[in-house]
Specification:
heterodimer, A: alpha+beta, 4 helices, 3 strands, B: three-stranded mixed sheet
């Protein structure tokens, strides 16, 4: 997680992060290392290991499921896949997030109507 | 240092790191702990095969990237520290952490949080912006709105219904208004019909929705003009 001085901002990042994971799985399954790499490149995480507890939680919640696959290089890999439930959760969040961003951006830019 | 010695040295660093992680995760049930440590181990294997560390400081940089064991443990232990999902606690305004709960709850709570956040933001802007558009109506979550300091019995809704104070004495009218969080701006006028000190007119009319903590206009009778005084 990228460090932030504002605790609220850290909370928001944290809340959004798991939906970013779900979004990365929208177009097909990926293995853990790949997911972490993407989030790391997007500067959404600094400590890569912190994604794994989050993945475990998503699996426990039924948003993702996993399967082992042989790898051409190295040991077998655990692949993560979005479940229908996870997809529904992602769709819901996407809509709400857009709405939220629009509302907040509107107020941040205009300061509200006087 | 030979490759063999270096290799075992680096392996020892990884094992030491993973042992420290397992220790930090000691409160987790064994199966979850083993699972998590296994995943981190695989992650390290991947990182090592991508760019093999040449020495101890390379390996140190690699492990730093994976993160401090206590940081990883903090995320993993959050679940244990949170109350059970069945008994939903009140959602703190602006907190996104509750989205972490079970999926069905997550959806509901996510929506509720977003709505509450937006309502509070919008209400705040309306209340502070003195927009004066008193007829605007929207859903209010009373419990989420800040109370006026020092007036604990005031209703906490942003919009209040203007009471009827016509015919009341000025003191009664001010008390009636204060009870719903309004102030009266008094104008004194003469009247041949209303006793001195009673409210003749009010604006807005009773039943109107008014922004709480707003000011409403009252005219109060000073009684009839003394005889002989020009009007």
């Amino acid at each position: 997680m990228v460090q932030s001085r504002a605790p609220q901002l850290a909370q928001m990042r944290k809340g959004a992060l798991e939906y970013c994971v779900l979004a990365l799985l929208r177009d097909g399954e990926r293995y853990g290392f790949e997911l972490v790499r993407e989030l790391s490149n997007a500067e959404l995480v600094t400590s890569e290991g912190t994604i794994y507890p989050l993945l475990a939680r998503l699996r426990q919640d039924g948003a993702v499921e996993t399967s082992w696959r042989e790898s051409t290089q190295g040991p077998p890999r655990r692949y993560y896949k979005l479940t229908p439930e996870g997809k529904a959760s992602l769709d819901f969040f996407s809509t709400e997030w857009q709405r939220f961003c629009l509302a907040v951006n509107g107020l941040l830019e205009s300061g509200g109507v006087r | 240092m030979s490759d063999l010695v270096l290799g075992s040295d680096l392996n020892a660093m990884v094992e030491g790191y993973l042992a420290e992680l397992a220790g930090a995760l000691s409160r987790l049930p064994t199966s979850r702990r083993d699972h998590l440590v296994g995943e981190i181990r695989e992650h390290i294997v991947e990182l090592r095969s991508e760019r093999p560390p040449r020495d101890r400081s390379d390996m140190e940089a690699l492990l730093n990237r994976v993160g401090l064991p206590e940081d990883i443990a903090a995320v993993a232990l959050e679940d244990l520290d949170e109350p059970p999902t069945e008994a939903m606690p009140p959602v703190p305004v602006g907190s996104f952490t509750r989205w972490r709960h079970g999926l069905s709850n997550r959806v509901l709570v996510g929506a509720a949080t977003a709505v509450i956040v937006l309502v509070v933001v919008v209400a705040g802007v309306l209340a502070s912006g003195r927009s004066g558009s008193v007829s605007r109506s929207f859903i209010v979550q009373p419990a989420r709105l800040p109370r006026v300091p020092g007036t604990p019995n005031l209703p906490t809704s942003v919009l209040v219904t203007m009471p009827n104070v016509i015919g009341q004495t000025q003191a009664q009218a001010e008390a009636t208004l204060a009870a719903v969080g309004l102030n009266g701006a008094i104008q004194v006028v003469s009247s041949s019909t209303a006793p001195s000190g009673t409210v003749l007119t009010q604006s807005p009319a009773s039943g109107s929705l008014v922004l709480r903590r707003g000011t409403v206009d009252l005219t109060v009778s000073s009684g009839p003009l003394p005889p002989g005084t020009a009007s």
